[in-house]
Design brief:
The complex is a heterodimer of chains A (275) and B (343).
Chain A lengths: L1 H15 L7 H18 L1 H4 L4 H27 L4 H19 L5 E2 L3 H8 L1 E2 L2 E2 H19 L1 H11 L1 H6 L4 H27 L1 E2 L8 H11 L11 H20 L4 H23 L1
Antiparallel strand pairs in A: 1-4, 2-3
Chain B lengths: L2 H18 L1 H16 L6 H8 L2 H18 L7 H15 L4 H25 L4 H19 L5 E2 L5 H7 L1 E2 L3 E2 H18 L2 H11 L1 H6 L4 H27 L1 E2 L7 H12 L10 H23 L6 H24 L2 H10 L5
Antiparallel strand pairs in B: 1-4, 2-3
Helix pairs in contact in B: 2-14, 4-9, 4-10, 4-12, 4-13, 4-14, 5-6, 5-7, 5-12, 6-7, 6-12, 8-12, 9-10, 10-12, 13-14
Classes of the chains: A mainly alpha (275), B mainly alpha (343).
Chain lengths: 275, 343
């Protein structure tokens, strides 16, 4: 759930610019593959407390961020529709990740990475702290920076924003790159929780969970104001629903129907509120 | 006009044609490439296997429906889910006769499409999220009505026989059905009022409503059409696999959308054509077949590479389209404008 929330923060920015990113799951697989290869090739380096973990995080975030930037180039520079531009990486990204790892499953030996995923600090799990940090940083950025104004302007009316001097393309590069970096972070968290790098399943199908959380949270798919608090609420609602349905032994197929109904109901509520 | 002038003029026309029909040019190039690259690529077995591939038939039907939806400025992510639901329903109805099964498949598809359409057009929800929820719901529904089983149908089931029938040993019978539906869709889209209304709504819904179009009715209709065609695709899927499998066709919705976009239909709405969608579908089908063929030629391409190549292929075509339609300098000018540099 923390990984989904981190991804949803990035997706909120993209959706606010009127875009969408279908490739988040594949971005995670790419970041995870890079981290996995690093841990397998240089086990003693990544086991150093502090520096090792930092290195793993840096590599995962950098690799996923570069691919996120490619998404940004396709959308911002070539003007390709976001759905199609990110569909490319959705299909190809996981293939690249599996090529890099030869499709094998790496067991994580690095203690700091495991500790990041499973450890605790001051009564809360480490991943919760990281999620909170991401949310707080995003909230501060959205409240205080010019960049946040640019995001809203691009999502509202691209041409008018350009006319008013907003660097539209750079804003698009930025939001897709941020999404990539956050996907790299989420990948390392997931690896720590699972204790293994499995590029075939890391983040598989998460794009739809993330996008529905953002939309349920009230950020319009047509672009406009990013609703960060709503997104967090959307993630909590959908994830808690999934967990509680599963814990009450409700069959998966019935749970899927209930989740679909809840998504529709939540969006109807949003619609009524905005009128 | 002298000889040289006429020659240059001809080239200019060719250039304009290439720019307007990028996907068709790539298709011709790929077909030609296969002819040179592989000896005997166009043998009876191979051609017939391309023509009866699920890419061409099932995804083709979904893509035809999606052309209406996308031209109306909406999107439908539920096509594969609807198709799987229909295939399970058809498998359960198979003992009651082939027409019942077929009717059930198309009927449930149209019904699910109607639910999509009502929620989008009359409740006013964004189609992306409605059909995303429908994708989730149809997958759940398929598992529910099949009780998590794969439901086999007999090889003697007439639909299976029809699906595998080859006319003249080459052309599969279901392809004729797809082509007939494509012809009807073409008439509806390009030669009837309905298509014009769909395009008008996709271009500018507010303006088309001011002109008196009843947009909710038309927007709901495009989802019903897509639903019904996805239902038929589900029946074909059942005939192909002889199993109603609730876990079949994962991710096909995105392949179908990619086929429509590769043909040149804009996701922004207001533009599109059935013929370009067919070109897009044919392009995907032939490239997937070439990947399989390459695999069988002693150069092993594992599934990881296949996905990378598929992705790169989609990328190549959309980039070519973006550059061709933007025409270099125009893209640069637009980019400058977007950067806030006065033109």
């Amino acid at each position: 759930m923390t990984a989904i929330a981190i991804l949803a923060v990035g997706m909120t920015l993209i959706v606010a610019t009127g875009g969408i990113d279908l490739s988040v799951g594949s971005l995670m697989a790419l970041g995870g593959a890079a981290a996995g290869v690093l841990m397998v090739e240089a086990p003693e380096l990544t086991s150093i407390p502090g520096i090792g973990l930092l290195l793993v995080l840096l590599v995962a975030i950098l690799v996923a961020g570069i691919f996120g930037f490619v998404n940004g180039l396709l959308v911002g520079w070539l003007g390709i529709q976001p759905i199609i531009a990110t569909l490319v990486l959705l299909i190809a990204g996981r293939g690249v990740a599996q090529l890099v790892t030869s499709g094998r499953l790496f067991t994580v030996e690095s203690a700091p990475v495991i500790a990041l995923g499973r450890g605790q600090f001051l009564g809360l799990s480490n991943q919760t702290w990281i999620m909170l940090a991401v949310i707080i940083v995003a909230a501060i950025i959205l409240r205080t920076t010019v960049f946040a104004r640019y995001v809203v302007a691009v999502g509202g009316n691209e041409k008018a924003a350009a006319g008013a001097g907003v660097p539209v393309r750079k804003v698009k590069f930025a939001v897709y790159t941020i999404m990539g970096c956050l996907a790299g972070l989420a990948a390392v968290l997931s690896i720590g929780i699972n204790g293994a790098v499995d590029t075939a399943n890391l983040g598989l199908g998460w794009e739809f969970a993330v996008i529905s959380a953002v939309v349920v949270g009230g950020t319009a798919l047509t672009g406009g104001r990013p609703k960060l608090a709503g997104t967090i609420g959307g993630v909590a609602l959908l994830q808690l629903l999934a967990f509680s349905l599963a814990s009450h032994n409700i069959p998966k197929e019935v749970a899927m129907l209930i989740q679909a109904a809840v998504i529709i109901a939540a969006v109807i509520v949003q619609l009524r509120k905005n009128r | 006009m002298n000889e040289t002038g006429r020659f240059l003029n001809g080239w200019r026309h060719a250039g304009v044609f290439a720019r307007r029909n990028g996907a068709l040019c790539v298709l011709i190039f790929v077909l030609f490439f296969a002819l040179i690259r592989y000896d005997g690529f166009y043998n009876q077995f191979n051609v017939s296997s391309i023509l009866s591939s699920t890419e061409l038939l099932c995804i083709g039907l979904m893509a035809i429906g999606l052309t209406f939806v996308i031209a109306a400025g909406e999107i439908d992510l539920s096509v594969a889910g609807v198709a799987v639901c229909s295939s399970v329903v058809a498998a359960l109805l198979a003992p009651f006769g082939v027409l019942t099964a077929l009717g059930g498949a198309v009927g449930i598809g149209a019904l699910l499409g109607l639910v999509n359409g009502l929620l989008v057009a009359y409740v006013g929800l964004p189609s992306f999220i409605v059909t995303l929820a429908m994708l989730l719901a149809t997958r759940g529904l398929s598992l529910m009505i099949s009780e998590r089983n794969k439901i086999p149908v007999d090889y003697s089931f007439p639909l299976v026989g029809f699906y595998n029938m080859k006319i003249g040993g080459l052309i599969p019978a279901p392809l004729l059905v797809v082509l007939a539906i494509a012809a009807i869709a073409w008439v509806l889209f390009s030669r009837a009022r309905f298509g014009l209304h769909v395009l008008a709504i996709g271009g500018d819904r507010g303006a088309s409503e001011l002109m008196g179009l009843r947009s909710p009715r038309i927007r709901a209709a495009v989802f019903v059409i897509t639903g019904a065609l996805s239902g038929l695709a589900g029946a074909f899927l059942l005939a192909k696999t002889t199993t109603g499998n609730p876990l079949e066709a994962q991710g096909w919705e995105l392949t179908a959308i990619a086929a429509v976009v590769l043909g040149g239909t804009s996701l922004a709405g207001g533009r599109g054509s059935i013929i370009s969608t067919l070109v897009g579908v044919a392009l995907l089908a032939i490239v997937f077949q070439i990947l399989n063929y390459e695999n069988g030629q002693g150069i092993p391409i594992n599934s990881y590479w296949q996905n990378v190549i598929r992705g790169m292929f989609v990328l190549a075509i959309v980039v070519v389209q973006a550059l061709a339609s933007g025409n270099g300098p125009r893209i640069r000018r637009r980019n400058q404008q977007l950067d806030g540099v006065p033109a």
